Amino acid sequence: MILLHQRPSKREIDKRLKDARKAVTERRVLFANDAKVVGELMALDIDDTDEVWELIEELLEELELDDYAGGRPPQRSTEPQIANSELWAFCWNSPKLKEWMYLKFAIKESCFCYVSLHKSKFPKDKNL
Q: pTM above the 0.85 mark?
């Protein structure tokens, strides 16, 4: 039986994480869906968008390759602003927030596109 290489590879995940960290550090960022973001930020007690980018910058440093929780291959976005961009989802136990967290983003034209950030509904230790 021949096993086909399943995307994304660890190397590809690593590249997307590096791209994301660089884009956020340089503040090349956007929200994929402003209406959805408002509720998520309120749930995290964040009132200022500058705060969310600082937080995401810290959270991206916590992520490891094995935290990838997205599709294989990565799903494509249907949000108009980032339509057809690959979605990169991660689930991990955040030391900073002391919660299992879920982060989903896309990289489009070297920008970090925030799709979702919230407490994970399905922590890895509960069969994510």
A: yes
Contact between 107 and 88 (Cβ < 8 Å) = yes
Identify whether the C-beta of residue 18 lies closer than 8 Å to the C-beta of residue 103.
no
Other C-beta atoms lying within 10 Å of the C-beta of residue 8: 20
pLDDT tens for the 128 residues of the chain, in order: 445 568 999 999 999 999 999 999 999 999 999 888 888 989 988 888 889 999 999 999 999 999 999 999 999 999 999 999 999 999 999 999 999 999 999 999 999 999 999 999 877 654 44
CATH code for the domain in which residue 53 is found = 3.30.2310.40
CB contact set of 95 (below 8 Å; sequence gap of 6+): 62
Number of domains present in the structure of the chain: 1
Q: Which domain holds residue 16?
A: 10-126
